[in-house]
Design goal:
- Two copies of one chain form a homodimer.
- With 295 residues, the first copy, chain A, is α/β, with parallel strands linked by helices.
- Chain A has two domains: 125 residues, Nucleotidyltransferase, domain 5; 145 residues, 2-Layer Sandwich (Nucleotidyltransferase, domain 5), CATH 3.30.420.
- The first copy, chain A, has nine helices and 13 strands.
- The first copy, chain A, has a five-stranded mixed beta sheet with strand order 3-2-1-4-8. A five-stranded mixed beta sheet of chain A has the order 11-10-9-12-13, sandwiched between helices.
- In chain A, helix 6 packs across helix 7.
- The two termini of chain A are 28 Å apart.
- Chains A, B: Belongs to the ROK (NagC/XylR) family.
- Chains A, B: It comes from Kineosporia babensis.
- Chains A, B: This is ROK family protein.
- Chains A, B: InterPro entries: ATPase_NBD, ROK.
Chain lengths: 295, 295
């Protein structure tokens, strides 16, 4: 979609700054998607100026109403409390005051967030975990692995460092010395099997390919270790799995749930669910946070 | 101490219901300890009546002021939000409405809490982590291993299931199939070395005992795995280690910190500190929660 809309029902813009594209959505007051627009990410962009300009272009393509609240989700280490983009390998920035820069350029209220936490907000409010009580976790498994932990509906920030489960070093077995996401991400899973996507690995495994079955099992085992550490710490009632890995649906959720349950003897096992918002989660969540900030 | 005090400065009573004794403290307005009293725990006590009566006796021994707020910390699974003692193996109870029963018997405001979370409150407010910003974790390593996670000073409850890191199944290596606390608790450490306490294991290891060195290293390695999973999830700035294991001081903290840092490549490593309140932590924290509830 590429729409310049002046819709009476339009309530907020959400923009997700990704490694390759800046994705924007226009949400109505009932949370439904009115329009979407995307542009390539200027990268690297150490000062953040290119990203700020691209975000403004995406907003302008989505709506002529310059007063709509805008939520912006950023990758890397983001500290929502201070409004700082602390660090991003891909974009090459360190300690950029993005909230201030975005507010100045956009001329309206901006809600700054982290892409994974924004995605968690979308899945918890209007996605797979909508209406669920208790702590909710959102774990996108794509080019990397990370987690958002939502407590009473609010994402845990911890200075921007919460949820980095993909960075955990594996200390035992075959993958010793690698980080969790170097084995269990969708990208690493596809690479190990020599195919283009994790979904292809799952399909080949279902058709009986021994190599794909082994790769798929390795990913599930390593991912279950990470989810088990998260589960004993914050005891989520639901873990929503997103990213490319979740496209395998039940072929992921069922064995992953079994491995997780085995690691939590006598404890309450979180329910696992595939994500509902797909790759729009962070933009939708950013828009919801924009709405809430104004409310 | 065994004191019946009517002190003008007395502000709150804190009572920790442990597996073997019910420990009470009387705190002044500045958080200092005015008196302590303990009685044996009636156990098992499936209805909770024996515990309620013992708590009342401890309170009465500490103060004649029946209007002082009382904080009570319980073991097992406790849901502070509903006021229920959900489950305890040692006491044999399941779904006992302890907040209601204690309030009726004591005739004053009662703040119900969980022993580990109450200990975390004590260490975060007036103990090892006093004045520290960010998420704080408290990990008592005694007969078992558990964690309290304090976010903006408030313990995460999650229906009573948060922080059960000691229950995590070990899936690799020599201790495969055991739970974390079956290897890394102070009790398991002493048992494996064939001595009476974890502190003795540390002393023997320092004197060059090969068996004790191996046992000590095993405990540190397994505990570091648990702390790493907690750290990537909630990113604490400080982890306070309590229980019998922490009595080893630097002999625990230094190698445990190294093992933890190794597991968190490129991430912010939490600072490790030994606990300040010793085995009074839960009672002190319960009293602080009693004070805050009234405030």
């Amino acid at each position: 979609m590429n729409a310049a809309t002046m819709s009476a029902g339009a309530q907020a813009v959400g923009i997700d700054v990704g490694g390759t594209s800046v994705k924007g959505v226009l949400l109505s007051s009932d949370g439904s998607l009115l329009a979407a627009h995307r542009l390539p990410t200027p990268s690297p962009d150490p000062t953040g100026e290119g990203v700020v300009e691209t975000v403004a272009q995406v907003r302008d393509a989505l709506t002529q109403d310059r007063q709509l609240p805008v939520g912006v989700a950023l990758p890397g280490v983001v500290d929502e409390d201070s409004g700082m983009a602390v660090y991003s390998v891909n974009l090459g920035w360190r300690d950029v005051p993005m909230l201030e820069e975005l507010t100045k350029r956009l001329g309206t209220e901006v809600a700054l967030s982290h892409d994974v936490r924004a995605g968690g907000v979308a899945e918890a409010r209007t996605g797979a975990a909508a209406g669920r009580a208790g702590v909710v976790a959102f774990v996108p498994v794509g080019t990397g692995v990370a987690a958002a932990v939502l407590i009473d509906g609010k994402p845990l920030v911890a200075g921007g460092y919460a949820g980095e489960i993909g960075q955990l070093l594996i200390t035992h077995g075959e993958f010793q010395g690698q980080r969790l996401e170097e084995v269990a991400s969708a990208r690493a899973t596809a690479l190990r099997a020599g195919v283009a996507s994790a979904r292809e690995v799952a399909s080949a495994a279902a058709r009986g390919s021994a190599v794909s079955q082994q790769v798929w099992n390795e990913t599930i085992t390593v991912l279950a270790d990470g989810l088990a550490g998260l589960s004993v710490t914050v005891a989520p009632t639901v873990i929503v799995i997103g990213g490319g890995l979740a496209l395998a649906g039940r072929q992921l959720i069922v064995p992953l749930g079994e491995e997780l349950e085995r690691r939590l003897p006598g404890l309450r096992t979180p329910e696992l669910m595939p994500a509902a918002h797909g790759d729009a989660a962070a933009a939708v969540g950013a828009a919801l946070l924009g709405l809430e900030q104004r409310a």
